[in-house]
Amino acid sequence: MQILSMMVFFPLLRKILSTVQVFYTSMAMAIGGYAVLFILMLNNMNNIYVLFIPGFFIFVAFGMLTVLTTVFLANTVDYGELKNNRRDESVIFSMQTFVVKLASGVAALIASICLSICNLSNNTETLQAAETAASSVFGLRMTMTVFPIIGLLIALAVFGKKFILTEKKVEEITQQLRKNRVSE
Question: How deeply is 87 buried, as exposed, middle or buried, from its count of CB atoms within 10 A (0-12, 13-18, 19+)?
Fold first, then answer.
């Protein structure tokens, strides 16, 4: 679904929305998908086909967010050139790889901490083990739904407060860079 969204959904949405609007749409889809998973978890839904619905929205959203990361990085290169009078695209794009690997490592660390805290066990022989297993599963489900929602909400807040490279601003930067190159 992520690859399909990169190739189909992003270009379709991009025809009618700005990149920032596609970003907010993707974030809303991801948060909505996780919220539906949370509701299904509270209702002990175990039908795999029903789980495809929120999964669809989550993976489509993350596919589009992956494309937007590259678009926003390209805009950052132009902004950096305007501010610093040099084009550092190799540094900026190589940092993306580092940040992805760092994020993967942090995610694995958080997942292992959550698994340790949830105390998952395959021991189901006693009633106490069954009760512990039920609370462990609940903790794991909360980790899989509530934490991503919180993370996405924090990302939305930071993006809304710090992001300045709207399409209008990017066009202004592009025009200024063209003027600078002509005058050199």
Answer: middle
